[in-house]
């Protein structure tokens, strides 16, 4: 099991001040065992109290990009329904430049119905959201790699869309797609560099990974060109870290090359140090 595994920490930007969030990110940026850091893309807080504070995702990420130096950064994940993909492509390029080429570009079909209704954002059925995601990936890739692309899709159109500058990362930032259903796995096979394994159990992760391999083979893509990302939410104050470590090692054994520990939105003092000492460092030693 001696393979390169990348470790990250997710710190959802709800129920926290920007100053606290920045402090955690800068601490993690100084920690060499942390490879990447993540926030989410929501306008309302998740959980039982939607009235709590929640910062907008892309402006927050731009601010954090400007104040960190080393770690990869991104969202797990941006909802495709929230922004036109041409605008999203420009936001992502901007953050890629601010971060000097450290952006991971996470994208998904979106799911939070209450949020859509609250903000007057159309929330189409699941099938349409998947189709929109497929088109959006194509639109964004063209804007990142072509001089003035045109595109005439069912949902999105471009007409000689001048799009400069291009991303620092070539050919573009890694595209990360969170997916579980069969149609979503087809989108992953077509567009993703990294798949976020939305699975409740290790067995389910293995089964979906095998199905993703099949979807890749159907279109002539080498499944090994798609990395796997496994994530686990913890309560820093109450989690059984033995169990957490066991579960994450099993994810790695199931094929995960990227591991993200989601710290929830309760951030006790020393939470970054705790995650590094109790989770990341012991796992790295166990798999070395």
Describe this structure in words.
The chain has one domain (6-287): Luciferase-like domain (TIM Barrel), CATH 3.20.20. The protein is of the alpha/beta class and 288 residues long. It is globular. Helix 2 packs parallel to helix 3 and helix 6 packs across helix 7 (202-218). It has nine helices and eleven strands. The strands form two sheets. Strands 1-2-3-5-8-9-10-11 form an eight-stranded parallel barrel, surrounded by seven helices. Strands 6-7 form a two-stranded antiparallel sheet. The mean pLDDT is 96.
Give the percentage of residues in beta strands: 15-25%
Order of helices and strands: EHEHEEHEHHEEEHEHEHEH
| Helix residue percentage | 40-55%
Q: What is the CATH domain class?
A: Alpha Beta
Q: Overall 3D geometry?
A: globular
Question: Structural class of the helix and strand makeup?
Answer: alpha/beta
Amino- and carboxy-terminal Cα gap:
7 Å
Uncertain runs: none
Strand line-up in the sheet with most strands: 1-2-3-5-8-9-10-11
Oligomer: single chain
List the total number of helices. Answer: 9
Main beta sheet:
8 strands, parallel, barrel
The CATH superfamily name is Luciferase-like domain
Based on the coordinates given, report the CATH architecture: Alpha-Beta Barrel
Domain count = 1
Cα-based radius of gyration, to the nearest Å? 18 Å
CATH-derived topology: TIM Barrel
The overall average pLDDT, rounded, is 96
What is the number of E strands?
11
């Amino acid at each position: 099991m001696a393979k390169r595994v990348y470790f990250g920490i997710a710190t959802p930007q709800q129920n926290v001040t920007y100053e606290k969030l920045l402090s955690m990110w800068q601490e993690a940026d100084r920690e060499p065992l942390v490879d990447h850091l993540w926030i989410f893309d929501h306008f309302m807080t998740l959980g039982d109290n939607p009235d709590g504070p929640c910062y907008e995702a892309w402006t927050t990420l731009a601010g954090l990009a400007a104040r960190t130096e080393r770690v990869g950064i991104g969202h797990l994940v941006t909802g495709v329904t929230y922004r036109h993909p041409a605008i999203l492509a420009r936001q992502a390029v901007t953050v890629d430049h601010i971060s000097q080429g450290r952006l991971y570009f996470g994208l998904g079909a979106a799911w939070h119905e209450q949020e859509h209704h609250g903000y007057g954002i159309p929330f189409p059925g699941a099938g349409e959201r998947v189709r929109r995601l497929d088109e959006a990936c194509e639109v964004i890739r063209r804007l990142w790699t072509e001089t003035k692309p045109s595109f005439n899709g069912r949902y999105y159109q471009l007409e000689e869309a001048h799009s400069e500058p291009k991303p620092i990362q070539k050919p573009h930032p890694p595209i990360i797609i969170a997916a579980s259903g069969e149609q979503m796995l087809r989108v992953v096979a077509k567009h993703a560099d990294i798949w976020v394994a939305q699975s409740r159990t290790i067995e389910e992760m293995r089964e979906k990974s095998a199905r993703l391999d099949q979807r890749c083979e159907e279109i002539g893509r080498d499944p090994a060109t798609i990395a796997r990302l496994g994530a686990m939410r913890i309560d820093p104050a109450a989690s059984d870290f033995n169990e957490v470590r066991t579960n994450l090692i099993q994810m790695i054994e199931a094929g995960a090359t990227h591991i993200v520990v989601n710290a929830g939105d309760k951030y006790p003092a020393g939470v970054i140090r705790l995650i590094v000492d109790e989770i990341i460092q012991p796992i790295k030693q166990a798999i070395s």
